[in-house]
Amino acid sequence: xxxxxxxxxxxxxxxxxxxxxxxxxxxxxxxxxxxxxxxxxxxxxxxxxxxxxxxxxxxxxxxxxxxxxxxxxxxxxxxxxxxxxxxxxxxxxxxxxxxxxxxxxxxxxxxxxxxxxxxxxxxxxxxxxxxxxxxxxxxxxxxxxxxxxxxxxxxxxxxxxxxxxxxxxxxxxxxxxxxxxxxxxxxxxxxxxxxxxxxxxxxxxxxxxxxxxxxxxxxxxxxxxxxxxxxxxxxxxxxxxxxxxxxxxxxxxxxxxxxxxxxxxxxxxxxxxxxxxxxxxxxxxxxxxxxxxxxxxxxxxxxxxxxxxxxxxxxxxxxxxxxxxxxxxxxxxxxxxxxxxxxxxxxxxxxxxxxxxxxxxxxxxxxxxxxxxxxxxxxxxxxxxxxxxxxxxxxxxxxxxxxxxxxxxxxxxxxxxxxxxxxxxxxxxxxxxxxxxxxxxxxxxxxxxxxxxxxxxxxxxxxxxxxxxxxxxxxxxxxxxxxx
Length: 484
Hints:
Blueprint: E1 14-18, H1 21-24, H2 37-41, H3 60-74, E2 78-82, H4 85-88, H5 98-113, E3 117-123, H6 129-135, H7 142-158, E4 164-169, H8 171-179, H9 191-215, E5 220-227, E6 230-232, H10 237-260, H11 265-274, H12 282-290, E7 296-300, E8 304-307, E9 348-350, E10 356-357, E11 363-364, H13 366-380, E12 384-388, H14 406-425, E13 429-435, E14 454-456, E15 468-470, H15 472-483
Parallel strand pairs: 1-2, 1-13, 2-3, 3-4, 4-5, 5-7, 6-8, 7-12, 12-13
Antiparallel strand pairs: 8-9, 10-11, 14-15
Helix pairs in contact: 3-5, 7-9, 8-9, 9-12, 13-14
């Protein structure tokens, strides 16, 4: 669709940036905080780059006022951050830690004082280690009540001051990486357990949404999903069918549950035939259908391209070079042959020959961002909050104290233009939270993979002085926000 003139962003559009507790806070055992599964997992030799962890991270816990001051100077309208469950309830389901409540309360007040809308994520991958030990984490239905207790505590504490809440961040990623590939905690490689845990997370998500609507009826809540559009490699109907299968498997398996309370039939039947489908009771279905999100958070980095499966069409197996990384969370594909995976009879993943890639091999696809927003909005008819979009790169601090990240500006500019086109198409978009505000700990890539508008003076081996240094992109986004 070509337009001579694009629709302007609304005056109240939430131009923001995002972060996650474990990746920025540090203070991992201070003021009564209990350990999370990431505090434990990151200490396992070989699991993270150079053994990096979030013990100190970028020390946001002690320097949040400095960080919020930079947000204000940048002109941010919104800041999305997550709450550490184990900072609020150290043992997962016991006494509430008032020091933890106070930290986030102070952060919210500081944001509000600077006219920055706080957007809270309830769960960004860091369940308390005590809940993992006691309940086997998300593999037990008993953990749902513990999660509700935590939600109730923060809804009571902050519900009158926070208008937008995210339940779970990228459920498709943390379940696959944690229970299938063992590259995240709890370090499991069992696909049946993955689907079982994923179902329990769905139930917890529904309970949290219903509890929120009871306690904070005038504000909004919804999950945040890592979405990637599915493309067929050719116009061959077999490839188109494979892309449809991939869309069901990689996207609809989660979004249909969030928005319709029902798993897609195609994938559920397939998983049942393989003996790995989750057990879904009548009461489960009733609960899932009762929980209605007010908006959908969409994290967008890239999509995927697909061809007909290798079982029915083995002659297509080597037609397109395949270099899909095992640890690419948005495609959920293994590194080598797919013979032992549910994907094999459904589709085959291939590279897209029309797209460039980042330093980490992620495809750069701004138009896919517009496609994503249109597809999700048309299918589910819910407002969309862009909760993540950004570029990871090895930024260089030059001798004069300048970080010239023009490549990040180019990336964000092209994606925001496509978001504006989606807005012009009619998509209801609440805001845009770039990932991320400051540099932070990349879960598996340490501190060398930088996403922030603000450079943090530290590396994988030395935390240095943790000085905050605005990058070129900081000033670009500041001017962009002023112009709306």
